[in-house]
Amino acid sequence: xxxxxxxxxxxxxxxxxxxxxxxxxxxxxxxxxxxxxxxxxxxxxxxxxxxxxxxxxxxxxxxxxxxxxxxxxxxxxxxxxxxxxxxxxxxxxxxxxxxxxxxxxxxxxxxxxxxxxxxxxxxxxxxxxxxxxxxxxxxxxxxxxxxxxxxxxxxxxxxxxxxxxxxxxxxxxxxxxxxxxxxxxxxxxxxxxxxxxxxxxxxxxxxxxxxxxxxxxxxxxxxxxxxxxxxxxxxxxxxxxxxxxxxxxxxxxxxxxxxxxxxxxxxxxxxxxxxxxxxxxxxxxxxxxxxxxxxxxxxxxxxxxxxxxxxxxxxxxxxxxxxxxxx
Length: 327
Fold this sequence. Notes:
The protein is α/β, with parallel strands linked by helices. The protein has 2 domains: 10-114 and 309-322, Nucleotidyltransferase, domain 5 (2-Layer Sandwich); 121-305, Hexokinase, domain 1 (3-Layer(aba) Sandwich). It has 11 helices and 14 strands. Strands 1, 2, 3, 4, 5 and 8 form a 6-stranded mixed beta sheet that branches. A 6-stranded mixed beta sheet has the order 9-14-13-10-11-12, with helices on both faces. β11 (148-155) and β12 form a beta hairpin. This is ROK family protein.
């Protein structure tokens, strides 16, 4: 139980399309025993989860709140709309629910970016080694879960970290073959637009499997497709190969856009699930296939982040670095 008297706690939440993770922090340090996970299904709003959490933890007198949202945040930072969930997050509602004097709303990839400096070595799994990182080099976090997004991480003097928001999951899907054009047309019939997220998020594997099997709708979920892959099912393996090559191409484009010599960090359940298959399906070749810049791509290391609660730590780091709600 946490009565949040002295020292005062901050309340943190990482809101995905499927689950919400909640925790308390003292300064930039998470309270390990406070971490909890809630399914979003059946909930009308985030405030329901936070109220339940605060009652269970007997927490009050909060110093501040920071939430990481899988969706675009308004320019003034006062509200956000979830991309894959019918929720709107408003700072005013969070303040009313928690009683905290200060509320910050971040895009979830921004929170992940603020977490990178504190990740333990065992929380990272190497995908591609890359070259040694120069001091202060930019990094890139890429979320591959229910949705897809990425954000650059820039290190300013005195240890200050800047993580600009992004919605690059909704840019146009790059096409390199006749097969990709067929997939584009398939997505356009259903969504009127073929985006990176349609193909490269966790649900993208489901959509591509439906395309491969001649179905108009995705009726087989990602876990079942992974099981079929383990059984060497031809259609599942074909879908995974298409998914992997598209993902490699997209990450290569993002690498050349942001030049993250400090590394690319993949987060999310779909990233962790597909990682063991990347080498088999020529992910490295797809990532580096950039014409005269193919050799240049050797500079970028790629890691999978194993820590499922990194965004919570990022929220704590953000509040501490900006000295928000910590007085």
